[in-house]
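W.,

You were right to be curious about this one. When I first looked at the sequence I had no strong expectations either way, so I just let the prediction run and decided to look at it fresh. Below is the sequence, 240 residues in total, followed by the output.
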Amino acid sequence: MERLHKFLAQAGLGSRRKCESLIESGRVSIDGKRVTKLGHMIDPGRDNVYCDGELIKKQKKIYFLLNKPRGYVCTNVAKSRDPRAIDLLNHIEQRVYTVGRLDKDSEGLIIITNDGELANLLSHPRYGIEKTYQVVVKGRVSDPAIRVLKRGVWISEGKAMPARVKIISRRYKHSALEIVLREGKNREIRRILAKIDHPVISLKRIKIGPLKMHYSLRVGKYRALSKEEVKSLYSLAVVN
């Protein structure tokens, strides 16, 4: 026997939290009967599970690292007005989704998979997986402004505090920073930098945990993760 939301996550419908939402919204049924309560147990070998009328089957787990271009959104909504990051993997037959988000105006690394358990580990704030960004902002960022960032900046969800902030270069009209986050609120970097009057010109994610940007992974391209890389991501989540 297996919990329904875990089965859905392993079938590639999203993280466990997203699958719980699918159940609660009445989109999941078992042998023709709608299920809306969490904690429901199923027998994967006997029960027929459907989501939005489509029969769901477990899939082989696959993992990719994409260098997302600007202009692409991290969503699985089929009728998105904007091009989707997952559509860059157009030869993949399995149902996949992005782990976390990288906003439309940003570029860089994002993991694409059908492994709901790993997606949950990497996305949940409690695990504190570090993500590193290169950011170019307007204006010359002063040392006092950097100290403000390190102490934390208040936004609507509360205090946003980067794990680390480093100046890469400073010019009169713009500055380049490296910022490390352990939990990412919606458009957090853009919002905290706007608060200190240094709006973002460009933002690129260059590292997710142990996975680093490499010059060979061009914008819009992707590669499969090795077994060792997947293990390292799981290990990092457990350690944190």
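Here's what jumped out at me. The CA atoms of residues 148 and 220 lie 35 Å apart. And, maybe more interesting for your project: The longest helix spans residues 227-239.

Coffee later to discuss?

I.
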